[in-house]
Design brief:
The chain is mainly alpha-helical and 90 residues long. The protein contains four helices and no strands.
Length: 90
């Protein structure tokens, strides 16, 4: 939310690298799973989806994470999720 001239690019790059490691872990965890825990939607899906949605939609050019994308698409099909996950980031 800073003006481009006021952004700390080194800090952004370091944060993006740490976030990529977390995204990789999440993508591996979701491989072959419909939800975070078990076979049903739960509180873990809500908590993690907020961070994952934000990560995949900020302008840092994240690596493709097909399992995360599939999982978020599935969550976005839920009426309550659609109104949140469909909102642009500010």
């Amino acid at each position: 939310r800073f003006k481009p001239a006021d952004r700390d690019q080194a800090l952004i790059a370091a944060s993006a690298a740490r976030s990529e490691r977390c995204a990789e872990i999440l993508d591996r965890h979701l491989n072959g799973r419909d939800f975070m825990v078990g076979e049903r939607f739960g509180i873990a899906d809500i908590a993690v989806a907020c961070a994952a949605y934000r990560w995949l939609n900020i302008p840092v050019d994240p690596k493709p994470r097909p399992n995360v994308a599939r999982w978020l698409d599935r969550l976005a099909e839920r009426p309550a999720s659609a109104c949140v996950l469909g909102q642009p980031l500010s």
